[in-house]
Design a protein that fits this description.
107 residues; five-stranded mixed β-sheet
């Protein structure tokens, strides 16, 4: 089984999404964040089930789409880990992966 980690950036993204959505509805904000988290649980068993994220064009940087959100993650098979890197709305530009190891840069 693969261990799933949420990076500080991804956790901050979830908090920002919750804060924004809760301006209209706290229960819907709670539901949105729960569903986003749930959408990547399958990665513990199927880490390559997400598509390769088109922007960095790296086989180890993949994404899960949930409604209008993209959850970008990195699969580290040698360590049996998946790291959720960022969560953002699909109409926004792909965020910079600055601050991550150099091999994570857009390729």
């Amino acid at each position: 089984m693969i261990t799933l980690f949420w990076t500080p950036q991804a956790r901050d993204d979830l908090a920002a999404i919750h804060a924004y959505v809760s301006q209209s509805s706290v229960p819907f904000a709670d539901l949105t964040v729960r569903e986003l988290i749930k959408s990547v649980r399958r990665l513990a068993d199927f880490p390559e089930s997400g598509r390769v994220a088109p922007e960095p064009r790296r086989a180890d940087v993949r994404e899960v789409i949930w409604r209008s959100y993209r959850l970008v993650y990195r699969h580290l098979p040698d360590r049996r880990e998946v790291h959720v890197l960022t969560v953002f709305r699909s109409e926004r530009p792909f965020p910079s992966l600055m601050g991550l190891p150099p091999e994570m840069g857009a390729g």
